[in-house]
Amino acid sequence: MNNSPQEIYQFLKADGDLLVVTHFFPDGDGIGSLTAFSGMLDQLEVKHTLAIDDLIPEKYNFLPGFERIRNLRVQPLDELFGRVAILDAGSIPRIGQAQTCIEPGAGILNIDHHLTGQYYGDLNLIDTGASATAEILYKLCGEFGLEIDQQIAYGLYVGILTDTGRFRFTNTTARSMSICGELLGKGVNPGWVTENIYYNLPFELVQALARSLLTIELHHGGLVCLIRLDHGHRTDDTEGFVEYASSIKGVALAAFLCEIDKSLFKVSLRSRSPVDVSAVARQFGGGGHLKAAGFRFQGGRAELIDRLLKEFGRQIEAHDLQPGVKFIDVAGDMGEPREEWMLEWSDRR
Ligand SMILES: [Mn+2]
User: Fold this and answer.
1) In the chain, where are the structural domains located?
2) From the CA of 33, how far away is ligand 1's center (Å)?
3) How far apart, in whole angstroms, are the C-alpha atoms of residue 276 and residue 312?
4) CATH for 5-198, among 3.40.50.1110, 3.40.640.10, 3.90.245.10, 3.90.1640.10?
5) Are 76 and 303 in contact (CB under 8 A)?
6) Centre of ligand 1 from the C-alpha of residue 108, in Å
């Protein structure tokens, strides 16, 4: 189903401007892949435009090439493109309004690593074993014989760093780490990257986290932990809030209830047990992966919590989870990357 590097090369080298996009709620892999790919296209002398239909988090503005990414909500494009490369997006609707910049019958190149990724492109390069889309681009650099310059190196490093949750999710492999080691050799300063992405938080974000932490509560004998961010507080960039709930000793199931508008919730679920939270999310019209999923809910907070706790209760019973039992066998996690840690659906994205 995948196209060869030669076919992709020919597609890229064809005539006409190329539009390069990633998904809305862009994350480090989407943004880093965009800037790295842009560096690759520069070396190939391909004229291109980088665009995202969403706000682009400022914390990534240290990336070489970042300034070339166009936020379509601020600067719409009135041009139609006959060629499009879509990076790190499992389906076309994930690129939002960028779809309106695609000419009918345009050639689409799809490069992605999501397990749920669809082969929607005219050309596809999907590798679900890759920790990040950036990892696929790294391989492509080698196949095209490109030099990994600073812009490419920083973009690829940020993609892998963020999609592996700073090398701690189970999609962290020997391969992803050795690629990052090589990228350090190309001039990436890991301290500088970490400083920008993780230690440069807006004060308001930490205030929101403080408010959120005050809502934390345990249910079902300590097996379930809920955390909220209520309406009126800053709601963007709450990625990671759910982890305060899921990282508590003894917690098997965690949920972060973010009220993004009056009576509209974005809910993130995590499982540290055999419970498949994507099945829970599906009950509410959402989806995701075994260990990380999410959904949107329109309605009152009390109703949401009530329904969620009932559903968690059913799962606890079905799997016979007992308080105080450690569910995750870390030693058994070695080896192949596990798709469920690709947090694609739930928070970002
Ligand atoms: Mn990704």
Assistant:
1) 5-198, 203-341
2) 9
3) 10
4) 3.90.1640.10
5) no
6) 19
Indicate yes or no: pTM above 0.90: no
Contact 110, 20 (CB under 8 A): no
- Element of type H or E holding 256: strand 253-261
Dist. CA 214 → ligand 1 center (Å): 31
Question: Structurally, what CATH architecture does the domain formed by 203-341 represent?
Answer: Roll (3.10)
Coil vs helix vs strand at 83:
strand
**Angstrom distance (rounded) from CA 178 to CA 181:** 5
Query: For residue 269, what is the DSSP state?
Result: E
Residue ranges of alpha helices (H) inside 114-256 are 133-144, 150-163, 174-185, 190-198, 203-213, 241-246
Integer CA distances (angstroms), 145 to 40, 111, 156, in order: 10, 18, 16
Which among 220, 266, 276, 216 has a CA at the least distance from the CA of 246? 216
Pairing state between β 217-219 and 123-126 = unpaired
Give the tens place of pLDDT for each residue, 143-164: 999 999 999 999 999 999 999 9
**Amino acid at residue number 265:** F
Residue 207 CA to ligand 1 centre (angstroms): 28
Q: Which residue has the tokens 């391969």?
A: 175
Q: Over the stretch 77-122, which tens digit does the pLDDT of each residue have?
A: 999 999 999 999 988 998 999 999 999 999 999 999 987 678 999 9
Say how far residue 217 (Cα) sits from the centre of its chain: 27
